[in-house]
Amino acid sequence: MPDSLPPDSSRMKFGIGQPVPRNEDPVLLQGHGRYTDDLQLPGQLWCVIVRSPYGHGLLRGIDTTPALETPGVVAVYTGADMQAAGYGTLHCMMPAPGLTDIQRPVLATDKVRFVGDPIAFVVAETRDAAKDGAEAVLVDIDPLPAVTDATDALAPGAPQLYDHIPGNLVQDFHFGDSDKVAEAFRNAAHAVKLDLRSNRIVVCAMEPRSAVAEYDAAGDRYTLHVGSQGVFGMRASIAKELLKVPVEKLRILTGNVGGSFGMKAGAYPEYLCLLHAAKMLGRPVKWTDARTDSFLSDYHGRDHEVTAELALDADGKFLAVRLTAAANIGAYLSSVGPLMGTSGFMRNVQSNYATPLIEVSTKSAVTNTSPVTAYRGAGRPEGNYFMERLIEAAGAQMGIDPIELRRRNHIKPDQFPFSAITGSKYDGGEFSAVMDKALAAADWDGFAARKAASTAAGKLRGRGIGNFLECTAPPSKEMGGIRFGEDGSVTIITGTLDYGQGHWTPFAQVLHQTLGVPFDRIRLVQGDSDKLIAGGGTGGSKSLMASGAAIVEASAKVVDKARVAAAHMLEAAEADIEFDPHAEGGARFSIAGTDRGIDIMSLAAQLRGARDLPPEVPDTLDVDHIFEAAPMAFPNGCHIVELEVDPDTGVVHIDRYVTVNDFGVLVNPMLVAGQAHGGIAQGIGQALMERTNYSEDGQFLSGSYSDYAVPRAVDVPSFEFISHGVPAKTNPLGVKGCGEAGCAGSLPAVMNALVDALSERGVKHIDMPATPEVVWRAIHEAA
């Protein structure tokens, strides 16, 4: 099926389906963005955090006197001070059956549990003075044995992080019918088993975390300027859980955000520290993380050890898939807890295959490492990676082409709507057609000639395929506010938040398409909690499904109000008023069968200045609307990679990359391709480069860019992006979400290609990250 677009969009320069450049780019590219660290408030003080230098230890005492005597230092606060103030704790905000919750104090009081654990904070007149004061704080810690790996943490005799969490087991998750799955494996003609690892990732957002807190004593109200993924939810969690005040006592403001990928979604200890200091000292207090501290204190991503198994009948039909995992959640629970390695695995290992039985058993462990949170995909890339690696192994074992194995097991178009064993209900898709289009675009059949050329050059060449299907987060309640300004602007107010995606332009395209207001007059407000009545934030690839649907429904309410107003202005019956959002000269309300009418912008202006309107006639076209939510969507696609390996050095070079995707309706194809590119680059980084490394005593050994490699331009190829859109039936725009899909397809495609290249040297499997050293060792150990 070709990409489907709403009627008339093809003739609209700024309508749905057009590759409109991002509105914010001229501002950002000229350096005029406003990030949190750009704020300099009158009377502002600086905060620096004192962090634990040990991975695990008993906190015996803190001497703040030397810090208080440091020139420029205004105050020093410890965990005892925060406890005395009666604040709440950080804990998991997401329902998780069987989870033993951890009430994390904002500052450590009894124990430190990872290198970087906040112990105290210093507030001073300048940043340098605050740094000097932080270095002067004397901390007495008795080191304890540490454990940094999930499997080791769950082993008998491992160092215990908490008295109330025996064996470090914070959740024992199980999904599926164990008896039926076991029977399927007993009766299977073939079964494959792989030990796989989804390596821990340092998020490395371009903008480090930063925040500025203010307190208005007269109004007893706080304001926090902070990078986030949604101000509405951030306000609720900080106000209710930490400050213990009504939500109206706190305002969250977020300007431009330089990346997050899940990491900035939840609250952190530093935010409450700043709010406390601002109240106690009566002055704004600012904190910006140093990059090295970001490596230590930001939540990390991934970190799962998995035994994956697939049962097949004699014809290669999938009978059951079974995942047995150990998940490292770090020293504390993030706001989403162990979601990624539990329900994240469960929903997404199904992928686009008609697998009748799925079992997931995950033991989540606390360790002496930075807490783990959602990272671009939050279990979706991992689930797809496990399935695709299993399929390659099954094909090799059975002597069946893995492409054919995939095709035999794809959910067919006549099986929709498809009810997955996990509870997901797929509304549609053309999975085999997407894969076939990718094979053709990648010149799959021409691989042999390219491999021969690589061999002649002394290189190993491999090709890999990565089918994927993601279960997006279901859209929560979302605001669709529309305001007609006195200056002729039209402002969208919604509770998702742009931290690099480019929401302004596609949201404006939706409003322009549905309401016909001039594209260049549309503004967007997302980052002010005072202006929101609902907001689910951005995460789980749901923003356009949520905010887009809210805009569509809010536009319909504007039209309803405007029809009443136009009938009054034109002295006609409401039933005779017609609306053409794309009339010549602008969106227009007119009397049917006549040339009498009024355009929507003029109507809004006339209402603003009108007097003595009848009670049934609205005095404004402004609308506040809440979209009630929609089911999750299921973006899917197929990535194909060709790469070369230098056997003498282990260096991997990705030579060709093709991706065919079903993201439903593409509101802005250019931005969708950009999102895919970013996700692919991060997938390549995880697969080949990004390795976190802790010592036995919990020291973080990859805490800088000298030790931790992220992809650079030279490390990624040109991507061929092709769309094969099947509109979703579960939201009014037919969109499916695209922000995390690049990771879901790239992990399996890259690693399958690498194993294919190394197979001629006897390597059957290699774990991520496959750095040059790891690849070189694998080649030589196989030899």
UniProtKB/TrEMBL annotation:
Keywords of the record: Molybdenum, Oxidoreductase
Domain of life: Bacteria
Transmembrane segments: none
InterPro entries: Ald_Oxase/Xan_DH_a/b (IPR000674), Ald_Oxase/Xan_DH_a/b_sf (IPR036856), Ald_Oxase/xanthine_DH-like (IPR016208), AldOxase/xan_DH_MoCoBD1 (IPR008274), AldOxase/xan_DH_MoCoBD2 (IPR046867), AldOxase/xan_DH_Mopterin-bd_sf (IPR037165)
Occurrences of domain Aldehyde oxidase/xanthine dehydrogenase a/b hammerhead (ranges): 30-145
Identification of the protein by name: Xanthine dehydrogenase family protein molybdopterin-binding subunit
Native species: Roseomonas haemaphysalidis
